[in-house]
Amino acid sequence: MTEPTTRTLDTIIIEKKERVATITLNRPEKLNAMSPELICDLIEALDDIQKDQDIRALIITGAGRAFLAGGDVEKDLKPLAGKSSSDFYDYMKQADLFYKALFEMEKPAIAAINGHAVGAGLDLALACDIRIVSEEAQLGQFFVRMGLVPEAGAYLMPRLIGLGRAKLLSFTGDLVDAHEAERIGLVEQVVAPDELIPTAWALASRLAHGPKSIEFIKKQLNESINMDFGSALDLAIHLQYQCAHTEDHREAVNAFLEKRKPLFKGR
User: Fold this and answer.
1) Could you tell me the maximum CA-CA distance found in the chain, to the nearest angstrom?
2) Helix, strand, or coil here: 85?
3) Residue 166, burial from CB neighbour count under 10 angstroms (0-12, 13-18, 19+)
4) Which runs of consecutive H residues, i.e. helices, occur in the chain?
5) In terms of Cα–Cα distance, which of 214, 194, 54, 198 is closest to 134?
6) How far apart, in Å, are the Cα atoms of 34 and each of 37, 45, 62, 77?
7) Interstrand relation of 189-191 and 175-177 (parallel, antiparallel or unpaired)
8) Which terminal residue of the chain has fewer beta carbons within 10 Å of its beta carbon, N or C?
9) Handedness of CA 23, 26, 31, 34 (dihedral sign)
10) What is this structure's pTM?
C-alpha cells in the first residue's frame, strides 16, 4: 500500500489514500464556481487519477459551503458572448473533457455534495456514478437562469429522473432540496452534514477494495442503456469473458471453496 499523498493545484486539492482519491473543489470564496482554471485543473486531476493504478475509486466534494455553484459570472459566463465561434467551440469542448473523463473512467466516482450544486455543479455531480448529499444541500439546473442550455445534464438527467422531470427542472431552474432530490432519483443517499465525507469514504473504500469486475460493470451499465436487449447481452458475454480471466475472479472462487473472505487486488 502506497503512502497517503496530497497535491494542491490552483483550484483543487487532490488527496490519495488507501486506493481512494479525493478531489476537493477549492474556490470557497467563489462557492467553487466553474472557471477556466478549474476546468484545466479538473482535467489534469482526472487524467492523473485514471492513470494511477493504485487508485480504484474517486470522491469529489467542495470546500466551504458549496459543492459547485454554477459558472463564475466574470470568468466563465460573461466572456462567452465575446468569443469567436472557434474560440467558443474550443472552450466548451475543453469543459466537455472533464464530464467525459468522469463518465468514462474505469474507476467508480462518488459525488459528495456538501452544499449547492447548480448548473455546471449539478452536471458535474450527474457525471459521477453515485451521488451522496448533505441534508443542507440544494440542487438545480441553473443554466436557464443565465439564458443558456444544460451541458452534460441534458444527456444524464433524463436517464436518472425521466424526461418529464428533467424538462421541468431544466425549463424552470428551480432548486430542489436534498430529500426531494432523493425522492425523484436525482441523488442516491441523503445524510447529515457531518456524516457526508465518512459515508462517501466508506462506500469509496468498499468499492476500491472490491473486484476488478466493478470497472467492467460500470462500462456495462453506461453502454447498455443505449443498446437493444440483444446487443446488451452480447456486451455482457464480452465483458464476462474478460472478468473470468482476472485474478480477482480466481480469488473469489478459491475463497468460496476455502470458506474464507476473498482478498481482491483489482487485477
Assistant:
1) 67
2) helix
3) buried
4) 36-51, 85-104, 120-127, 152-161, 163-172, 178-183, 196-208, 213-224, 229-244, 247-257
5) 194
6) 8, 15, 12, 9
7) unpaired
8) N
9) negative
10) 0.93
Cell, residue 239: 465483458
| pLDDT one digit per residue (tens) for the chain, 267 residues | 578 999 999 999 999 999 999 999 999 999 999 999 999 999 999 999 999 999 999 999 999 999 999 887 888 778 877 888 888 888 888 889 999 999 999 999 999 999 999 999 999 999 999 999 999 999 999 999 989 999 999 999 999 999 999 999 999 999 999 999 999 999 999 999 999 999 999 999 999 999 999 999 999 999 999 999 999 999 999 999 999 999 999 988 898 899 999 999 989
Tell me the sheet residues that pair with 110.
59, 130
Q: What string of DSSP letters covers 161-209?
A: H-HHHHHHHHHH--EEEHHHHHHTTS-SEEE-GGGHHHHHHHHHHHHHT
Among residues 32, 49, 160, which one has the least CA distance to residue 109?
49
Residues listed for the chain: 267
Name residue 38's amino acid. Answer: L
State how far the Cα of 190 lies from the Cα of 109, in Å rounded to an integer. Answer: 17
